[in-house]
Every structure is written in structure tokens, then in C-alpha cells.
Q: What sequence folds into this?
């Protein structure tokens, strides 16, 4: 069931709501946010539902889910979902990785008939726009997976395929969780170094041993995607000074820095003032243990970079990209941000 927040009342009285300016969609692996925004940047309605990544659920199910969420948002805003409800749709979707996938998803979103124009991008662009409006900027997201995008004032874009190990990626909650289980099992059977994870992993899932956890995942008793839950367990072990866990944290900091600085190098930004936007549950939830390591490494390679940590919903970025397309973002950005959330700044 979607969670719906409607903002279409004035002084406790139902008020007529004009069709929205922007329909903003942030479709991720674990959740999807849909926001209808008025021309002045105010929020008409927000709907949150499950993950809509077509790579996980298929194009048909993604289409059905997005149609339902858009319909619920329209109804919550007092609009007729059977007709176009917005001037423009800005959809930032996980799984929009390869050009062919962007084309498929553009056709899918256009087929919803929710607006006159549609723009579909990878969801990393939503994080980038939520974190900054700078012309020279790079974003690295580390949630269930890991990805990076960069833009430069001249219009250049730096992107990565983001297909996991198939495209050379390492990191993200699923990768860190798998590392935590791997370390725990090896410590348990004698092949690896002692680690707190041996007990923490078993305790997290309520099994006697880490080996039992691995067997339960193999047998389908524990869903494979629950490995994401071990990411904060690994970080907790690292905070306690556990050497194997700290080694994984250091590798994550290296990987985030590598993504960011390779993108900057491609765009000629290593020596230029550049906003580096970081987001995703792993990076926002890990605290100084990971964030400080990234900042130190980035400072050595890109000394003029300014790190911005985004803790607000990425749908903020999707909405701002929509107003960018309409040419009104400078007039409404403050309203969009205050209406949805705000972005903290770190260095």
C-alpha cells in the first residue's frame, strides 16, 4: 500500500487545484516517490510506494506500479488521473543505465499519458540535482548499489554503465553485506581472521552461526536482498575497531573516491572548484567513519572539490530537473526545497 500525503487544502477547506507544473518521479530499487508540484514550486501531493526498477520487477510490472502511484498522487491532489495532470514529467529511475534502457523507460513513462512532455534519466541525476545546481559537479550514490555521474559547464557528461560486477563496480549495501557474511563465515570455520562479524551477523538474523545464515540464504529462508541489512552491521563492527571490517570501510572509501575523481578527470575538473554530491543510505548512514575517509582521499586528489552530503529525498532533484526543463527553477527552487526537504553541507 502506498503512503499518500496530500497538500491540497487551504485553511481546512478543500481548494480547487490546477493541473501541476511538474510530475516528479524518483524510482529506486527499494522505494518509489512520486510528487506533483504546482507552478510556484509548492507540493500538491506526494505518494510513496515500493521499488519500481524494471531490472528487478520487469517492464510490465514497473508500468503498472508507476501508473498506480501517479493515479494516487493525482487523486490526492484533486486532479483527474484519466487526463494529463502536469505540464512535464521528470522521471529519474534506477535501471536507466544503458541507452536502450533509457529509451524503453521513456516509452513506458510517456505511455502513462500524465504530461505533454517527458524526460527520463538515471536516478543518479536526481541525487546530483538535489545536492547542487553548480555547472561543474559530480555525484556518487551508494545505496543498494553504487553509481556515479558528472556534468561540466560545457555540457559534457561522465557516466558509468552501473551493471554491478558486470561493469566493474564494487560497493553498495548488497556488496558490503556480502563482504560482511563472507568475513563472518571464514572467521567461523578457520579460513579467515577473527572478527566481531562472526557473532554480529548471526545475531542480526537470529541464527546460531554465520554459516547457518549463509545456508538460510541459499535455501531461500532469508531473501537474498536482505544482505543489504548487514551494511550497518559491518560499519558498527568497524566503529568498534574490528580490523577486517575497517579494511572493507577503507575499500569503500577508495571506491567512492575513485568513481568521483575518474569522473572529474574525464570532465577536466580535478583542479577546478567542483561540487561532489554524496548520497544513498550507505553513505548518509555511515557517519564520519566513512565520510571522513572519503573527504581525506578526495582532498588529496581534487583539492578544490566541495563535498555535499544529501540526506533529503532524491525526488527533490527530480522535481528541480523538471522545473529546469520548464525554465522556472530559479524562481521556485527555494519553495521546492522547503516543501520537500533541505540539503546539508559538509567538507
A:
Amino acid at each position: 500500500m502506498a503512503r499518500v500525503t496530500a497538500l491540497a487544502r487551504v485553511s481546512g477547506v478543500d481548494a480547487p487545484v490546477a493541473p501541476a507544473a511538474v510530475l516528479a518521479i524518483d524510482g529506486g530499487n527499494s522505494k518509489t516517490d512520486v510528487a506533483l508540484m504546482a507552478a510556484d514550486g509548492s507540493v500538491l501531493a506526494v505518494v510513496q510506494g515500493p521499488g519500481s526498477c524494471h531490472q528487478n520487477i520487469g517492464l510490465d510490472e514497473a508500468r503498472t506500479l508507476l501508473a498506480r502511484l501517479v493515479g494516487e498522487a493525482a487523486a490526492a491532489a484533486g486532479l483527474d488521473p484519466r487526463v494529463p495532470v502536469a505540464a512535464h514529467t521528470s522521471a529519474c529511475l534506477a535501471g536507466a543505465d544503458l541507452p536502450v534502457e533509457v529509451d524503453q523507460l521513456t516509452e513506458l513513462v510517456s505511455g502513462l499519458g500524465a504530461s505533454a512532455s517527458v524526460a527520463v534519466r538515471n536516478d543518479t541525476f536526481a541525487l546530483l540535482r538535489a545536492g547542487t545546481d553548480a555547472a561543474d559537479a559530480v555525484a556518487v550514490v551508494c545505496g543498494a548499489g553504487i553509481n556515479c555521474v558528472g556534468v561540466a559547464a560545457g555540457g559534457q557528461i561522465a557516466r558509468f554503465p552501473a551493471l554491478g560486477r558486470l561493469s566493474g563496480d564494487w560497493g553498495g549495501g548488497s556488496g558490503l553485506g556480502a563482504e560482511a557474511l563472507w568475513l563472518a563465515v571464514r572467521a567461523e570455520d578457520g579460513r579467515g581472521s577473527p572478527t566481531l562479524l562472526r557473532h554480529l551477523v548471526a545475531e542480526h538474523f537470529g541464527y546460531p552461526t554465520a554459516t547457518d545464515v549463509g545456508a538460510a540464504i541459499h535455501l531461500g529462508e532469508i531473501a537474498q536482498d536482505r544482505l543489504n541489512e548487514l551494511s550497518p552491521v559491518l560499519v558498527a563492527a568497524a566503529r568498534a575497531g574490528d580490523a577486517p571490517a575497517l579494511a572493507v570501510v577503507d575499500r569503500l572509501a577508495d571506491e567512492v573516491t575513485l568513481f568521483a575523481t575518474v569522473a572529474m578527470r574525464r570532465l577536466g575538473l580535478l583542479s577546478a572548484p567542483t561540487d561532489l554530491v554524496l548520497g544513498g543510505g550507505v553513505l548518509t548512514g555511515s557517519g564520519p567513519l566513512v565520510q571522513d575517509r572519503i573527504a581525506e582521499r578526495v582532498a588529496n586528489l581534487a583539492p578544490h572539490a566541495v563535498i555535499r552530503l544529501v540526506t533529503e529525498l532524491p525526488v527533490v532533484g527530480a522535481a528541480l530537473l523538471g522545473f529546469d526543463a520548464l525554465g522556472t527553477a530559479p524562481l521556485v527552487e527555494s519553495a521546492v526545497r522547503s516543501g520537500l526537504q533541505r540539503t546539508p553541507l559538509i567538507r
Q: What stands out?
A: Residues 3-123+314-340 form a domain with the Nucleotidyltransferase; domain 5 fold (CATH 3.30.420.40). The chain has 13 helices and 13 strands. The CA atoms of residues 49 and 136 lie 33 Å apart. The radius of gyration is 21 Å.
